């Protein structure tokens, strides 16, 4: 029988990943700035028993340019804060994981740790977090604390670009390390509520993290008690060796961008090699393949829909991830093929919302269940439980009892 541990997530962004999606969506364009939109999308994803939704975010406006605004007014611009969307959706859902994206380049890790820990508390242990490197000069200019020289996407193999990208990921590594230490800075049993002695917390079970590095100096402890999951799930998007290594050191889940089954197998092998190189001791990364999906009842209808979207946008759609255009049954066959190649699951990016998300939950998921590839519902528990990840031991509690 096929392995039933296939994981499915939906990546949600605005009105869909195709830049002309807003022109075909049944929803009013302004709805993406309302809580009810995100609640409806999360509810639909949960009806399909997806493991998680991810919420995109950045520190500057959406743009077709690699750096800076493009001046276009025919594409969706503007978004809500991903962490706050997740916090609003949390009490309206029961099972699905919530993984917001945040920048670690211009945001203090102390603030990030408290925001994601709070999300884990209010969701009952369903929080995740995707730390994102901000390599754009336009993002840095919003803060005025540092200058990031422009990076040419076509010259990233030049020594200066390699050095700057390496610095950004080294800073991201320190940020995630600080966040993880802060999540552990309260032991699970630090809150004692001992009325006879008048002590609400046991101060000996709160710990300084005492992190000093090139970019951060953080004393701790956190102001938020340890999250229900101990450590919320950390996810990373990776396209090449440097982010693969970053994920191997710091993440629980890695989103990758194969083009076919053979490429998927080679990426999985590279990710596993990165885990060996960095000496990973945590459970192996859950490797999820990203796909932009545009679905319809027939292959020709899906192609016509994509052609119409491209026509409205004035250009053929391109993405960092492969794009699938076809029927849910065809997508189920592709998923089975790539799953056999070694990926643990998929993060599907709906091209246009809400239609493509509905096709995922109401047609693709049943097709995967018919093939024995996906569970019938939620087994209960935290996001870590859904992903088959153990609850980590608190590093400071271990040190205190050693």
TrEMBL record:
<comment type="similarity">
    <text>Belongs to the NtaA/SnaA/DszA monooxygenase family.</text>
</comment>
<keyword id="KW-0288">FMN</keyword>
<feature type="binding site">
    <location>
        <position position="57"/>
    </location>
    <ligand>
        <name>FMN</name>
    </ligand>
</feature>
<dbReference type="InterPro" id="IPR036661">
    <property type="entry name" value="Luciferase-like_sf"/>
</dbReference>
<protein>
    <submittedName>
        <fullName>Flavin-dependent oxidoreductase, luciferase family (Includes alkanesulfonate monooxygenase SsuD and methylene tetrahydromethanopterin reductase)</fullName>
    </submittedName>
</protein>
<dbReference type="GO" id="GO:0004497">
    <property type="term" value="F:monooxygenase activity"/>
</dbReference>
<dbReference type="InterPro" id="IPR016215">
    <property type="entry name" value="NTA_MOA"/>
</dbReference>
<keyword id="KW-0503">Monooxygenase</keyword>
<dbReference type="GO" id="GO:0016705">
    <property type="term" value="F:oxidoreductase activity, acting on paired donors, with incorporation or reduction of molecular oxygen"/>
</dbReference>
<keyword id="KW-0285">Flavoprotein</keyword>
<dbReference type="InterPro" id="IPR011251">
    <property type="entry name" value="Luciferase-like_dom"/>
</dbReference>
<feature type="binding site">
    <location>
        <position position="240"/>
    </location>
    <ligand>
        <name>FMN</name>
    </ligand>
</feature>
<dbReference type="Pfam" id="PF00296">
    <property type="entry name" value="Bac_luciferase"/>
</dbReference>
<feature type="domain" description="Luciferase-like">
    <location>
        <begin position="39"/>
        <end position="339"/>
    </location>
</feature>
<feature type="binding site">
    <location>
        <position position="101"/>
    </location>
    <ligand>
        <name>FMN</name>
    </ligand>
</feature>
<feature type="binding site">
    <location>
        <position position="163"/>
    </location>
    <ligand>
        <name>FMN</name>
    </ligand>
</feature>
<keyword id="KW-0560">Oxidoreductase</keyword>
<dbReference type="InterPro" id="IPR051260">
    <property type="entry name" value="Diverse_substr_monoxygenases"/>
</dbReference>
């Amino acid at each position: 029988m096929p392995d039933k541990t296939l994981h499915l997530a939906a990546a949600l962004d605005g009105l869909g990943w195709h830049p002309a999606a807003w022109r075909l969506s049944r929803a009013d364009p302004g709805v993406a700035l309302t809580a009810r939109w995100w609640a409806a999308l999360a509810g639909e994803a949960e009806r399909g028993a997806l493991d998680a939704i991810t919420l995109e975010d950045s520190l500057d406006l959406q743009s077709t340019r690699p750096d800076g605004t493009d001046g276009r007014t025919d594409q969706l611009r503007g978004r809500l804060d991903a962490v706050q969307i997740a916090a609003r959706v949390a009490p309206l859902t029961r099972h699905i994981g919530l993984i917001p994206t945040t920048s670690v380049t211009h945001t203090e890790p102390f603030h990030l740790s408290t925001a994601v820990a709070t999300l884990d508390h209010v969701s009952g242990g369903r929080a995740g977090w995707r730390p994102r490197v901000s390599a754009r000069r336009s993002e840095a200019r919003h803060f005025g604390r540092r200058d990031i020289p422009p990076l040419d996407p076509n010259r990233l193999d030049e020594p200066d670009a390699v050095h700057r990208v390496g610095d950004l990921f080294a800073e991201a590594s320190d940020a995630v390390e600080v966040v993880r230490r802060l999540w552990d800075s309260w032991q699970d049993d630090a809150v004692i509520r001992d009325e006879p002695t008048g002590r609400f917390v046991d101060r000996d079970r709160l710990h300084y993290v005492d992190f000093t590095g090139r970019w951060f100096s953080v004393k701790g402890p956190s102001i938020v008690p340890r999250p229900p999951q101990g450590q919320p799930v950390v996810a990373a998007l990776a396209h090449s060796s440097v982010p693969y290594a970053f994920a191997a050191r710091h993440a629980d889940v890695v989103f990758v961008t194969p083009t076919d089954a053979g490429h998927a197998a080679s990426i999985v092998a590279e990710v596993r090699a990165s885990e060996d190189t960095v000496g990973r001791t945590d459970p192996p990364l859950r490797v999820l393949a990203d796909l932009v999906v545009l679905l319809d009842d027939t292959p020709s209808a899906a192609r016509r829909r994509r052609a119409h979207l491209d026509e409205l946008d004035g250009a053929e759609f391109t993405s960092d991830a492969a794009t699938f255009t076809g029927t849910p049954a065809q997508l189920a066959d592709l998923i089975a093929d790539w799953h056999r190649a070694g990926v643990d699951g998929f993060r599907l990016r709906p091209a246009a919302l809400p239609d493509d998300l509905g096709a995922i939950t109401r047609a693709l998921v049943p097709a995967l269940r018919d093939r024995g590839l996906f569970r019938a519902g939620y087994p209960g528990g935290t996001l870590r439980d859904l992903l088959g990840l153990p609850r980590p031991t608190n590093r400071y509690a271990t040190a205190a009892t050693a």
